[in-house]
Design a protein that fits this description.
- This protein is of the alpha/beta class.
- The protein folds into two domains: about 1-100, no CATH class; about 115-220, no CATH class.
- Helices cover about 40% and strands about 30% of the residues.
- The chain contains four helices and ten strands; from the N terminus they run ααααββββββββββ.
- The strands form two sheets. It has a five-stranded parallel β-sheet with strand order 1-3-5-9-7, with no helix packed on it. A five-stranded parallel β-sheet has the order 2-4-6-10-8, with no helix packed on it.
- Helix 1 (about 1-25) runs antiparallel to helix 2 (about 40-50) and helix 2 (about 40-50) runs antiparallel to helix 3 (about 55-75).
- The longest helix has 26 residues, at about 1-25.
- The two termini are about 45 Å apart.
- About 15% of the residues are buried.
């Protein structure tokens, strides 16, 4: 319902802007239908997304690119400068997404409140989940040790754990009624899966993706 209201509002905004532009051009010397005016029409839904929706970073980058094109059409900056700015924004956008994927930055905008973020910096932490529903998590360990004990956790479906170790170690302890599928990258570190999954008599799977830089990951 909310999506339909937003779409209807956007169409109304388009109609009002074009109608207002025609009226002003016929009755006054004001011209809001200038060269590149259609970029403002594109900016309206993006501004709406920034205000009402969650994926703000992507929309801010897109809004910046469109704004750059707009001031170029208005001859405030040259096309060469516009190209440099857009290229720089594209590099920043790609860099942000690479960092998010490699370092497993948790998405705080997720609607699933059960996905947690555990982190240890210059210390040791033990997270023991007793009779708690576990649906997945992200773990950061930097110059420390993190132990996640899922022995008595309630795991009702396949789960995903993302682990980032930098000069640190992470230990994940599970019971014998779950399969472990582990993959990732290790740069001068250690990654071991002590559990034996050969029988595969279980019906739930714990998928672990890790990046270890001078760190270690052990699944017990």
């Amino acid at each position: 319902m909310k999506e339909k209201i937003l779409n209807i509002t956007l169409y109304i905004e388009y109609f009002i802007y074009i109608l207002l532009g025609i009226i002003l051009k016929m009755t006054t010397k004001i011209n809001i239908l200038f060269n590149g005016w259609w970029l403002i029409i594109i900016m309206i839904p993006i501004l709406t997304n920034i205000i009402f929706r969650k994926n703000k970073i992507n929309n801010i980058i897109i809004l910046s690119i469109i704004s750059c094109l707009l001031i170029t059409f208005l001859k405030v900056i040259s096309f060469n400068m516009c190209f440099i700015i857009i290229t720089s924004l594209a590099i920043i956008y790609i860099g942000i997404n690479i960092i998010k994927n490699i370092l497993f930055i948790p998405n705080y905008e997720t609607t699933n409140s059960e996905i947690n973020f555990y982190n240890t910096i210059l210390g040791e932490d033990i997270e023991k989940l007793n009779n708690i529903l576990f649906t997945g998590c992200t773990i950061w360990t930097i110059f420390g040790t993190m132990t996640l004990d899922l022995t008595n956790a309630k795991i009702e479906e396949d789960c995903f754990i993302k682990v980032f170790n930098l000069f640190g170690s992470t230990n994940i302890i599970t019971d014998n009624n779950i399969d472990i599928i582990k993959n990732g990258k290790t740069i001068i570190g250690d990654s071991n899966n002590i559990k034996d999954n050969k029988t595969r008599k279980k019906n739930k799977t714990l998928r672990i993706k890790s990046l270890n830089i001078l760190g270690s990951l052990k699944v017990k």
